[in-house]
Amino acid sequence: MNGLFAALRRVLALAVLALTPLAAKAADPPPLAAFGNLPEIESMALSHSGNRIAAVMTIGGKRMLLLLSSQLDQLRTLPLQDQKLRSMEWVGDERLVLVISQTTTLPAQYVASQFEFFHAIVVPVDPSQQHYVVFDGDPSIVNSVFGSYGIRQVDGRWLAYFSGVERERGARGYYTANGRTSLYGLDVERNTRRQLVGPPPDGASNTWLVGANGDVAATISLQLRNGSWAIKVPNGPVLAEGVNRRGEVGLVALGKDGTSVIYQERNPADSVTRWFEVPLQGGPAREFIKAEDVRRLFTDRSTGRMLGLQRMGAGKRPELFDPQHQAAIDKIYAAFPDLEVTVSDWSPDFSKALVRTTGNGDSGTWYLVDITRMRASAVGYERVAIEPDRVGPISTVTYKAADGLEIEGILTLPPGREAKNLPLVMLPHGGPHSHDEEVFDWWAQAFASRGYAVFQPNFRGSTNRDEAFMRAGFGQWGRAMQSDISDGLAELARRGVIDPKRACIVGASYGGYAALAGVTLQQGLYRCAVGVAPVSDLASLFAEEVNTGGSNGMLRRSLLEELGPRSGFDAVSPRYFAAQADAPILLIHGKDDTVVPFDQSDRMADALRRANKPHRLVVLREEDHWLSRAGTRLQMLEEAVAFVQQHNPAG
Are residues 305 and 375 in the same domain? Predict the structure, then answer.
C-alpha cells in the first residue's frame, strides 16, 4: 500500500504542475489570492455507506456545495456564495445537513447588539426535492439551532437531533421569553420534529447524550449560579453529581459498548481535567483518562458510542477499540509518514475514509481511501496554485523562556532561501488557548512567500502540552505570555536565522492583542504591528463578556481566573499605553465581530490618534471574527502584507 500511495502522490504532483498557469515564472511567488482566498476545497463529508461525498468547493470563482458519487459523478449542486459554513454531515445516504451561521443585529431590549445565529439546512440528494431550513416557518420556535446532538437511524428512518428555543404566544403574537433550550429529533425526510426534552428551569442549563435508539441516554444539568451539577438517566438514578464553581464539567460520549457514560470535570484542587466513566445503570465512576492527553475523540455517528481517541503528541496515531478499525487507521497513516494526517470522515466499518493531508510540500490534499480494495484516490486540492516547491519549509523550534520554561514554536521559512539573517514576521496565535502545528498555514505561508521567516510561538497558555502549561498563562496577559513571544525572537536571532532588527509582529484575536502589546507594553522589538480583531482594553472586554453572558457567576469567576484580578486590567491594556507605541500600527477589524467587539479597535485607534502615533484602521464590512468571507479575508491579507512590506521590507 505504501508503494501505491507513493506512486499516486507523484502523479498528483504532476497534476498540480499541469494546472498552474504557464505565464508564471519559477521565481515569482503565487499571488496573495492563492493564500488569502478560501481554499478551493473547504470541507468534505462521507455518507453512511461511503458511496457518496459532499464537498464545499470554489470552482471558477463560484462557491458551491457539491453532492457526488464515490466516482465523483455530480448528483446535485447548490450555490453558497458568502454563506458562512460551520459544519456538514450526512444523514444516511440521501440527505446532508449543512450548518451555516449568520450575524444578526438584535433589537434594543437585548444586552448584546449582535448575535451569531446558527442555521441547519437539510439538502436532499435528489435535485427535484427542495432543501429546507430546520425549525423554519413555525412561529412557535426560533428558526435557529443551538447545538447538534447527532444522527440516528430509528425504525428505518433517519433522524437528526438539535437543540432549539421555544417561543411563547402573547397578545401580539409569538415572542422569545428566554434562551433555554429543548432537545428535538427531526425526521429529515418528512421535516417533522418531536420534542424529547423540554427546557430546564430558570438559572439552569442542560446538555444531552442521545442513545442508539434515538432516545435520551443521559442528561447533565448545571446550575449557572453556583455550579452544582448532576448527570441523570431518564427514569433512572443520578449517575454523578457535584459542584464546580467554574462550570468546567460536561458530557463527552457514550462508552464503547453503549452501556456507560463518559463525562469530564476539572478538579479545582490540582487544576486537572479528567474523563470519568460511569455505568448507565448506576455505580461508581472510574477515571478514564486525563483530558490533557486527548487530542481528538472518535465516536460512532449513528450510535454516539466512543470508538477510540487520538492522544496528544507529535506522531501519535488514533487508537481505536476495534482491531479491524485500528488496522485500517494504521494503513492510512503508514501511507503518509511525513505529513500531518487527518481522518476526516469514515464509513461505520472503516472500509472507506476521507483523509486530508498537509505539511511540507502539501498545501492541503483530500483522498478517498478504500481500505478493502487497497486503493486511494485524490479527490481534490485545497490550493492548486501553490505548487509543492512553493510551500515554505515548516519545522518546530524549542527554546527556553526567561524563567526557564520550555517553549515550542513553529518556524516557516521562505521557499528556496537560506535560513540566515532573514526578516521576521512574529505571528502569535489567537485563543489564547489554542496552538499551532507543523501544517500548511495560509497566513504564515503568505508572508513566507514574500521572503519572511515566520514564527508562531506556542507560549504558555497554549494547548500543545499538558493542562498545567495551559493554565500557566492564567493572569499572564501582557506579562509572561508576552515575554515568551519575544524570547522566541531572541532565540531565532541567537541561531542566526533572523535579523532581530528587522521584525514585525502580526496576529488576530489574542494574537492581535499580543501584536499591540509588543509595541506598547514592550519597547524596541518590532518595526511594525498588525492587530486583526485585537483586544486592546481588558476591562471593556470583561464587562462585555459578563453582560452578554447574563451576569452568571460561573462566567465571571472563569474570566477572572484567566485574566487575573480586575485591578490589574489597565496595566496590561495596550489602549492605555498608546502614547508609548514605538512602531506604526495597523488595526483590522470585522464590523460584525461578535467575539471581540469592533470598538476594541475603534478605541485603540482613537487613543493612537490622540497620542499622535502613526496608525491606520481598516474596517472589514460584513465580516465576523473568523474571517469567514473570501473577499474580506483576502482584503485583510493584502492590507497586512503591504503594511509589513512598507515598514519592514524583505529585500
Answer: no
The CB-side HSE value for 634 (13 A sphere, CA atoms) comes to 10
pTM of the model: 0.90
Q: Count other Cβ atoms within 10 Å, centred on residue 412.
A: 28
Q: How far apart are CA 497 and CA 489, in angstroms?
A: 10
Q: What whole-number distance in Å separates Cα of residue 79 and Cα of residue 283? A: 52
Q: With 0-12 CB in 10 A as exposed, 13-18 as middle and 19+ as buried, what is 49? A: middle
How far apart CA 233 and CA 211 sit, in angstroms, is 11
pLDDT (tens digit per residue) in 447-482:
999 999 999 999 999 999 999 999 999 999 999 999
**Interior CA angle at 133 toward 199 and 118, to 5°?**
60
- The secondary structure of residue 22, as a DSSP letter, is T
Which residues are paired to 356 by β-bridges? Answer: 342, 366
Domain final residue pick, 265, 283, 311: 311
Three-state secondary-structure class, residue 564:
coil
What percentage of the chain exceeds 90 in pLDDT? 80
Q: Which domain holds residue 172?
A: 83-193
Q: How far apart are CA 331 and CA 1, in angstroms?
A: 8
Examine residue 336 and state whether it is found in any structural domain, yes or no: yes
Strands (E), 382-461: 394-400, 406-412, 422-426, 453-458
Question: Is 39 in the same domain as 9?
Answer: yes
Secondary structure string (H, E, C) spanning 219-232: EEEEECCCCEEEEE
- Cis peptide leading into 124, omega within 30 of 0? no
Q: Considering the domain boundaries, does residue 70 fall inside one?
A: no
Crossing angle for the helix pair 442-449 and 630-647, nearest 10 degrees?
40
What are the residue ranges in the chain where pLDDT is below 50?
1-26
Q: Where are the alpha helices (DSSP H) in 116-265?
A: none
**Cα gap 195→445, rounded to integer Å:** 48
Residue 506's nearest CA partner among 462, 453, 460 is 453
pLDDT of residue 561: 86
Torsion of CA 417, 418, 420, 423, to 10 degrees: 10
**Structure confidence by residue, pLDDT tens digits, 327-380:** 999 999 998 998 999 999 999 999 999 999 999 999 999 999 998 888 888 899
Query: Which amino acid, residue 208?
Result: W
Non-local CB neighbours of 486 within 8 Å, separated by 6+ positions: 518, 522, 525
3-class state of residue 145 by DSSP: strand
| Calpha distance 232→304 (Å, rounded) | 17
Sign of the C-alpha dihedral, residues 543, 544, 547, 550?
A: negative
Q: What are phi and psi of 572, to 5 degrees?
A: -125, 20
Cell of 480: 509572561
